[in-house]
């Protein structure tokens, strides 16, 4: 394994508890359990999630439904997966849940109107929710581990990313442009506008807000 690959795994591998991303995910999980101590008895709707997250969780809810555009197996009666648009899932038929969870989805749905539709689905599907997203003004853009990337023009981002070693995959200019346009990080003000009845929790690294979570418990 090259030095670049080792650094990439150390910084941006959420499945490795020793990486920065893995450590942050573990801290968020602790906060989620603290916010919803009866999680094991809940029916949970996970918008944008996949079954693998819940299969590996230290606490399993009574029932989980994951909704994602990516196909996945439904492992059993307590955990089902639906291929659908989280911003307007037609497969749920107005079904109600105890808790809606959404991790790192809202910045990828495509514009404010789509974020508003997602927020409406979250708030109409359960009285309680947990909606997490990376914070726009954290100095390092989290998807590519690139300092200040989110503040550059789309053209400049797309020119730089094919030469940046810490991205998710090898991209040409067109692929990089498509990727950067599909990611719009949110501010605290926008999260409060979308979820006015929620508390916005700041997940911090070195005293700086790394991600924000709208919590209604």
From TrEMBL:
Q: Which organism is it from?
A: Actinokineospora diospyrosa
Q: What is this protein called?
A: Methyltransferase family protein
Q: Which InterPro entries match?
A: SAM-dependent_MTases_sf
Location of region: Disordered: 1-20
